[in-house]
Design goal:
The strands form 3 sheets. Strands 2-1-3-4-5 form a 5-stranded parallel sheet, with helices on both faces. The protein has 8 helices and 12 strands. The relative contact order is 0.09. α2 runs parallel beside α3 and α6 crosses α8. It has about 230 residues and is an alpha/beta fold. The chain is elongated and about 75 Å long.
């Protein structure tokens, strides 16, 4: 999985060093700058996945930087976590109303920092992820999740890959041999019962009535296909 890049913006060098060290040890790439102007320039030049933004910056403060980010079509969806030494509720509320995704009050624990960064990145991933959705069934391609009527369903990796292949190609008929080749590779060639067993398991998990399936249809004497809406 590609490492995410975090932009940390703070005029206190020791805070930047702390952020950089602790995030990089958790497999993030970290770019640090000390001013809002530098931050906006970098955001226009680099692919940034999230911003840690101090409110109390010289010249252009954090709220002004946040305002500029949210006005810019190219970067407005980048998640921003505000860093603030202020305890006043007004600043936190104002930041959130202006479009900040979260805030962390200084001094903060490293565990809290890591949890909040992970949470906003997960939220963005889920919002932008490709999801196949049909009749209450949702298949998250990147997250490898399956939900039925909003309830997550546990599936083995092979079950998910089989369901995903069929769902991505609705109406296309796959023979058992082709499904074996694509999902199990050469190891199971000829073992078509493996496909039938997995289809049966998937149906029990996603179908209201697995004896009369609405999602995965049997093409008698050949194989399977996913429903066409």
């Amino acid at each position: 999985m590609q490492r995410k890049t975090i932009l940390a913006v703070d005029d206190e060098v020791h805070i930047l060093e702390l952020l950089k060290y602790n995030l990089e040890t958790n497999d993030y790439d970290v770019i640090t700058v000390e001013t809002g102007e530098e931050a906006l320039h970098l955001l226009s030049e680099e692919k940034i996945d999230a911003v840690l933004l101090d409110l109390m910056l010289p010249k252009m403060d954090g709220l002004e930087v946040l305002r500029c980010i949210r006005k810019n079509e190219k970067i407005k969806k980048i998640p921003v976590i505000l860093l603030t030494a202020k305890s006043a509720e007004f600043d936190k509320v104002l930041g959130l109303e202006m479009g900040a995704d979260d805030y962390i009050a200084k001094p903060f624990s490293i565990r809290e920092l890591q949890a909040r960064v992970k949470a906003v990145l997960r939220r963005v991933t889920s919002e932008t992820e490709k999801v196949i959705s049909t009749h209450g069934l949702e298949i998250g391609i990147e997250s490898k999740t399956v939900k039925k009527d909003g309830i997550e369903i546990e599936m083995s990796l092979k079950e998910f890959e089989l369901l995903k292949l069929l769902a991505e190609n609705p109406g296309k008929v796959y023979s058992r041999d082709i499904l074996l080749e694509k999902i199990w590779s050469y190891e199971y060639i000829g073992e078509t019962r493996t496909v039938d067993v997995h289809i049966r398991h998937i149906r029990k998990k996603i179908e209201e009535d697995d004896s009369n399936p609405m999602f995965i249809k049997t093409v008698r004497g050949f194989g399977y296909k996913f429903r066409e809406d």
